[in-house]
Write a structure and sequence with these properties.
The structure holds two protein chains of two kinds. Chain A is mainly alpha-helical. Chain A contains eight helices and two strands; from the N terminus they run αβααβααααα. Chain A is 63% helix and 4% strand. A six-stranded mixed β-sheet of chain B has the order 1-5-6-10-12-11. The longest helix of chain B has 49 residues, at 2-50. Chain B is of the alpha/beta class. Classes of the chains: A mainly alpha, B alpha/beta. The interface between A and B is large, with 52 and 37 residues.
Chain lengths: 166, 716
């Protein structure tokens, strides 16, 4: 009995250490000046690059927990590490599986055409939910629009991006 | 549904961004670790001078090779006569390239550009004449250029070009050629790494000769003989001007040593290649003789100076007991000690020896320096200043710290910048020296601007190039970015595809580096694999990579691309080396080690190859390997060295073609049996900039540029 709980504890410890190192690596990549701080506008990118899929609102909550009292615009590593470790250990903000993504697009495709027009995607992405900026919209359109048809074949798009991930 | 899609897409973009960042980290780490290597080589040569041993004929073999080939840099005045090199070279009637007459005109600059686009080569005679005229003009100039926008009302500043002709064409295409109304500052590093260093230099020097008051050239750390041996300029010279490579090399070295060190615009903006330090002061810089100070020379001087002082002290002690010479006049003559005859106490045992020594030194001094510059009055900080000017990098840390990445110059903080600008009443420091994804970057609260003009520096799609236009009475900065591509290469990649390509290329470079340390890595892996299962934990694999590899990259993030996991999530460490293997046509033995030190070996070869023939003798090769083993802590037994030497001497005539030796390394992709390295970096294509797209997509995170209120405007 004792042996297996010891082992279990050891595993938990090493998992914890691994997660901490992962967070450190991700943070360092964005630590432009190598002084253990990152611009707060990059926190979202870091969190997501670690495999989490929070909404903008959830990100803001995270930021509020770790930002400095005087708004410096920078987040320090000492604050980021414990929070991010917790997030990963608890598996918060897990990404959505492919089939759910597909369903989401299908919801937007009111007429069940099997594709979305540029105007439709633009409307939903900029007016609903947590709207895209103009830049984000343009980027998404450039990769999502099928060059031959001029529309968004969302089934293919979802598959393509999921494969890229893997 | 909208939120789901949005957050999913944002996650995808973030992961792409992370990949882009670590790709950059990989490229840069590998680049700087190469520069560190170069420093070690320099330090090695310095310590070698300190420890010279005389052999039987009174001349240390290695030092002789070193000294005589170093002559262009150390013994500058001997080679100051470029015109001597030109004598006897005629232009054949069959020559179809561009003809030059002096003085150079703007029309001739255009002729040269057209000729290079048509892939013509400039005849060596014209090249040498061009270099001669350039050097003559440089000699008349001060260490610091003073540029004024009173006539033109604007000025353009360009950064590193590194032999990339397509980028220079792009700049001229977008900004026009230099003229009275269109002055330019080119901030160093015109050569090395790219394929057309010679053509870039020719065009820049021709522009300078055509408009000497409107074209300002600053020296970069790559305008340096020893750097050129390692980073490709020498190779290019030998390839393009084989029969005259010695004269061409000497002439370029001479011209480089006369390049001014910095440019001041309107007494408001300082443009210098690397940066500044607490030692740098424009006043003292203005006084020093820049011709004497190249990087390797400055380091040699530092060593020699120490030796010399020791020697002097010794002499002094001996002679003062004999109450003979008055030392002051003597001291004012004594200069640096010859590399060939280091001092030794035993020689100063009698008065006769002393006077002999003094005489020898006096002769030596007259052979080397043809003026009365009293080097004793030169403070040591002078050459340190030049090092700092050409090698430093701005960092956020306060103060001045040694630049350990590069091995020369320092890291200077915002306080150093602030003090320097205040002291000189400047408002901005423009520098280059570091590649930036957007082609430029502001530091120190907008007071330091880095400009880098070689786009696609690491690989296609790695970074934009940029130049700055300073306009109006306040010299407001407008940045112009660009991407210059080879005609016919793939341009219409999506953002995602571009990142994937770049990532693949960085990973390839990384794998090659990993391959060179295979035996060290395997040793480290095995330490963790106590039960000899062939697998280790992920954490152990990461820590092994961290400790053995000398590049600072995120191993955890890269792990999935580098190794395989087995079913219980342990790393099969041998799979680290699965994909690639080094092949060498001639030498099976020790090829891994030789590949690892290939660049250093090449530098050493070139030093030995005094006549730039591409051949060295067997004994010189053995010496080179011995030098290498001393400078690294690697053991190459004499037998091993002999084996390699024998296998390389293909026609058994005692001569080794080291170009062939180096070319013979091939990294072969095991899966496809395609040759993946060396990548074809030596293509001779001249790029037609008119067909280049302007690239609107961002290279990375669209960040607002934090800057002073005066700094504005991004154009693509």
């Amino acid at each position: 009995m004792a042996a297996s709980t010891d082992e279990a504890k050891e595993n938990a410890d090493s998992l914890f250490n691994e997660i901490q190192r992962k967070v450190t690596e991700a943070f360092d990549i964005f630590d432009h000046e190598s002084n253990k701080t990152v611009d707060e506008r990059e926190i979202g990118t870091i969190v997501r690059s670690l495999g989490c899929c929070p909404t903008e609102g959830e990100l803001q909550d995270m930021l509020h927990e770790i930002e400095e009292e005087e708004n410096t615009g920078y987040i320090r590593f000492e604050r980021f590490l414990p929070l991010m470790t917790k997030v990963l250990m608890e598996r918060r903000y897990k990404p959505v599986p492919e089939d759910i993504m597909l369903k989401a697009f299908q919801v937007l495709d009111a007429e069940s055409k099997g594709y979305l027009t540029k105007e439709e995607l633009e409307k939903y992405m900029t007016e609903e939910g947590e709207p895209f900026t103009q830049d984000e919209l343009e980027e998404m359109l450039s990769s999502a629009i099928d060059p031959d048809k001029g529309t968004i074949l969302y089934k293919d798009y979802v598959s393509e991006l999921t494969v890229e991930e893997q | 549904a909208a939120i789901l899609i949005q957050k999913w897409y944002r996650m995808y973009v973030a992961r792409l961004e992370a990949r882009r960042r670590y790709t950059w980290t990989i490229f840069q780490s590998i680049e700087y670790s190469g520069e560190q290597d170069q420093l070690k080589l320099h330090n090695f040569f310095n310590s070698m001078i300190n420890q010279l041993k005389l052999d039987t004929d009174g001349q240390p073999k290695i030092a002789r090779a070193f000294a005589s080939s170093q002559r262009p840099a150390v013994v500058a005045s001997e080679t100051s006569d470029i015109s001597g090199c030109i004598e006897g070279i005629e232009v054949e009637s069959s020559y179809t390239g561009p003809h030059l007459t002096f003085p150079i005109t703007h029309a001739q600059v255009k002729t040269l550009i057209q000729a290079f686009k048509a892939k013509r080569r400039l005849h060596v005679r014209y090249l040498l004449e061009l270099l001669n005229e350039t050097q003559k003009l440089f000699k008349q100039m001060k260490n610091i250029n003073y540029a004024s926008t009173s006539i033109s009302k604007q000025i353009t500043v360009c950064g590193d070009l590194h032999g990339k002709l397509e980028d220079l064409y792009m700049i001229f295409h977008k900004n026009g050629l230099p003229s009275v109304d269109n002055p330019f500052v080119f901030n160093g590093d015109f050569v090395d790494r790219g394929a057309s260093s010679i053509e870039v230099s020719i065009i820049l020097f021709a522009c300078f000769l055509a408009s000497p008051n409107e074209v300002f050239l600053n020296r970069g750390n790559h305008e340096d003989h020893v750097m050129n041996m390692r980073y490709g300029f020498m190779k290019e010279i030998i390839r393009k001007y084989k029969d005259y490579s010695t004269q061409v090399t000497k002439s370029f070295t001479e011209v480089f040593s006369w390049l001014p060190l910095a440019t001041v615009i309107d007494d408001k903006v300082l443009v210098v290649h690397g940066g500044i330090s607490q030692h740098v002061s424009l006043k003292s810089l203005a006084r020093l003789d820049r011709h004497r100070v190249s990087r390797n020379e400055s380091m040699i001087c530092a060593t020699l100076k120490q030796q010399y002082h020791l020697f002097l002290l010794t002499l002094q002690t001996v002679v003062s007991h004999n109450d003979c010479y008055g030392w002051s006049p003597v001291l004012s003559f004594l200069q640096f000690i010859s590399v060939l005859r280091p001092p030794s106490l035993s020689e100063v045992s009698s008065l006769e020896n002393v006077s002999l020594e003094l005489q020898r030194l006096e002769e030596w001094k007259q052979n080397i320096f043809n003026d009365e510059t009293n080097f004793l009055t030169l403070k040591p900080t002078f050459y340190v200043q030049v090092l700092d000017l050409l090698w430093s990098d701005p960092k956020s840390l306060m103060g001045c710290n040694p630049n350990t990445f590069r091995g020369g110059g320092c890291y200077f903080g915002p306080d150093i910048t602030e003090n320097f600008l205040e002291e000189h009443n400047f408002k901005l420091l423009i520098r280059s020296h570091e590649c930036k994804p957007e082609g430029f970057e502001y530091n120190h609260d907008g007071k330091v601007l880095t400009i880098f003009s070689a786009s696609n520096y690491y690989d296609i799609g790695s970074n934009k190039g940029a130049y700055a236009k300073l306009m109006g009475p306040d010299l407001t900065v407008h940045m112009v970015q660009f991407l210059a591509y080879q005609t016919g290469s793939v341009r219409k990649l999506t953002f995602t595809q571009r990142i994937s390509c770049l990532e693949a290329s960085a990973m390839q470079d990384l794998r090659e580096k990993i391959l060179t340390l295979k035996s060290d890595l395997m040793e480290e892996f095995k330490k963790h694999d106590t039960e000899e299962t062939g697998t280790i934990t992920i954490a152990d694999w990461c820590s092994a990579m961290e400790s053995v590899m000398d590049v600072d990259v995120p191993w955890r993030m890269l792990r999935s691309k580098l190794v395989k996991l087995n079913s219980d999530k342990r790393v099969n460490y041998e799979s680290t080396f699965e994909e690639l293997q080094i092949y060498h046509r001639y030498s099976e033995a020790i090829m891994e080690m030789l590949y690892r030190y290939k660049d250093s070996l090449e530098t050493i070869f070139r030093i030995f190859d005094k006549d730039n023939s591409g051949f060295i003798s067997m004994s010189e090769f053995t010496d080179a390997c011995t030098l290498l083993t001393r400078h690294t802590s690697v053991n190459l037994s004499p037998n091993q060295v002999n084996d390699i030497a024998k296998s390389l001497d293909l026609n058994k005539d005692g001569q080794i073609d080291f170009n062939e030796f180096l070319e013979a390394f091939r990294i072969v992709d095991q899966k496809n049996l395609n040759t993946v390295s060396p990548r074809n970096t030596e293509s001779e294509d001249i790029y037609d900039c008119a067909s280049v797209n302007s690239f609107d997509e961002p290279m990375g995170v669209k960040r607002k540029i934090t800057s002073n209120s005066e700094l504005s405007n991004l154009e693509t």
